[in-house]
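Reopening this ticket.

The earlier resolution said the output was attached, but the attachment link was broken on my side. Pasting everything inline this time so it's all in one place.
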Amino acid sequence: MEVLYLDNKIIVCVKPAGVLSTDEPGGMPSLLRAALGDDTAPVYTVHRLDAAVSGVMVYARTRHAAADLGRAIERGDVRKEYLAVACGTGLPPSGTIDLPIARADDGSTRRIPAPGGQPSVTDYTVLAERDGCTLLRVAPRTGRTHQIRVHFAALGHPLLGDALYGGEMSRLTRPALHSAAADFAQPVTGQSLHITAPIPRDLRAFDFERYL
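Inline output:
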């Protein structure tokens, strides 16, 4: 468990791929309590990452901080930046994907672009093209479930390793998506924080370190 920032109101850490972000056995809050050495320590989930996605997560340590962070997220004052690898090349150098997203009606966890879905907007910049893939910096304006994965699949460029949305699986067995940085204000003092998460081992072959 890698803690990136800690004070008496919040704890910022790196979520490994494959670990749930919510408070249940084996989820991040229980792992953080173990890291703090207190199984009863309050740890509140204020945002989520898909289980298969790695990177920065912010947790509150008091109810007041959780409420403040929740309001900041609703206002768009918590900004997150992701690094991703999309299958294929030829995307414009930068762009905005504006496609509403809804839950698929097949009983699965899949989401789909749908005119009646929740408004969903993703900005992106192409960092490089290599080995038939595109390295991306991605900044979602909204926080829908699977948003980045759905948006790039809709463009015909699913994320590498993303079996749920048609990504190529021979080089990676989970979506090539990492929450690389978060910018937000400490909920009590208002101090501006910029927190970055190191690149996980399974994505280091793409040389993302130069873009942190």
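Reporter confirms the inline version is readable. The first strand starts at residue 2 and ends at 6. Residues 44 and 63 are 7 Å apart (CA to CA).
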